[in-house]
Specification:
By secondary structure, the chain is an alpha/beta fold. Helices cover about 35% and strands about 25% of the residues. It has a 6-stranded mixed sheet with strand order 6-7-8-3-9-10, sandwiched between helices. The two termini are about 45 Å apart. The structure holds adenosine-5'-diphosphate and magnesium ion.
């Protein structure tokens, strides 16, 4: 591939088999220079396997992948020099200090002397671990270790950074803290980031574009907004101050805005709209001009979880879903795909 194409990752029909198990079943995607691209999917979807192929740690069974302009099979050394990686599983040396972990890594990449010292200081300051540089990593919290791994992956100024589940197992506060570094990284450097996650809030918060991966296949791709528009609508809920004489749905029959209106009870109305923040002011002004008194307005934006549910019939959650409602949702999804 031509290095000036503007894409830092190009993947075409990538397949990875472990024996009989098809872990990755022909995925294709492109990541632009400077973009944060996310692979969002449940456990076992094939995220780590894809990262390991892109980072040249395992060979693809078939298909092609080009990272930073180099083919992962034909030019693995050039790929390795161009990338940094934070593994899903911890990979620091517990017996060494933060500084020593950084130093060793720098030496492996051929850095030395003042340039290496300066880079270590700069990065340890970036992840706010400079004060802890001489402590052994075994005394670090999970969040501190993650930050050190991120700093280490950036040491040789990679063009592409891979983050495999960067906040897995961390508490919400620490996760938010890690997100800040990733967001700052994208602002302050030109690094392209490919991350995997099974947390939809993380994908939504960090990624410019997301591919949803399930059972080794990409089932949807786009910006978070585009993905949510698969659901098609926001839902606005109104509670009326008094029972209306006229049918609220006929009063609120606003062309090009209301896609569907449903009377939920005497004083509750649900309206499907393309965009709730644009529709609400219009709904309120028309309701008021026609004497429909509204006590309360709320709306529900579809989440990436709704998108995953819609596409697969399953929740994108750690825990197994239960309950009758989910059984129905699953049955509906299977019927849509002609399996029931
Ligand atoms: N080294 C391996 N040998 C055999 N099967 C593997 C290996 N690594 C992963 N798998 C299987 O491949 C599938 C994808 O795994 P993985 O890429 O780790 O998914 P994810 O990172 O999305 O959780 C899973 O079914 C997993 O059990
Ligand atoms: Mg994984």
């Amino acid at each position: 591939m031509d290095k000036s194409s503007g894409y830092d990752i190009v993947v075409e029909n990538l397949v990875k088999k472990y024996g009989d198990l098809l872990a990755v079943r022909g995925v294709s995607f492109r990541v632009k220079r400077g973009e944060i691209f996310g692979f969002l999917g449940p456990n076992g979807a094939g995220k780590t396997t894809t990262i390991h192929v892109l980072a040249t740690l395992i060979k693809p069974t078939s298909g092609r992948a080009v990272v930073a302009g180099y083919d992962v099979v034909r030019e693995p050394m050039k790929v390795r020099r161009s990338i940094g990686i934070v593994f899903q599983d911890p990979s620091l040396d517990d017996q060494l200090t933060a500084y020593e972990n950084m130093y060793m890594h720098g030496r492996i990449y051929g850095l030395r002397g003042e340039a290496l010292e300066e880079r270590i200081e700069q990065l340890l300051r970036f992840v706010e671990l400079y004060e802890h540089r001489n402590r052994q990593v075994r005394y670090f919290s999970g969040g501190m270790r993650r930050r050190l791994e991120i700093a280490r992956a950036l040491l040789h100024e990679p063009q592409v950074l891979f983050l495999d589940e960067p906040t897995i197992g961390l508490d919400p506060h620490t996760r938010a803290h890690i997100w800040e570094y990733i967001t700052r990284l994208r602002k302050e450097s030109r690094v392209t980031i490919f991350l995997t996650t099974h947390y939809m809030d993380e994908a939504e918060k960090l990624c410019d574009r997301i591919a949803i991966i399930d059972h080794g296949k990409i089932i949807a791709e786009g910006t978070p907004e585009q993905l949510k528009s698969i659901i098609g609508s926001d839902v606005v809920y109104l509670r009326l101050s008094a029972r209306s004489e006229k049918d609220p749905c006929s009063i609120l029959d606003i062309p090009n805005t209301i896609k569907e209106c449903k009377l939920l009870s005497d004083d509750r109305v649900a309206l499907k709209v393309a965009n709730a923040t644009e529709a609400i002011p219009l709904i309120l002004s028309i309701a008021s001009s026609k004497g429909l008194r509204i006590a309360e307005v709320s709306y529900h934006k579809p989440s990436l979880n709704d998108v995953f549910l819609y596409l697969t019939g399953r929740e994108l959650r750690d825990e197994e879903v239960g309950g009758l409602e989910n059984l129905f949702i699953k049955a509906r999804a299977l019927m849509r795909r002609g399996r029931l």
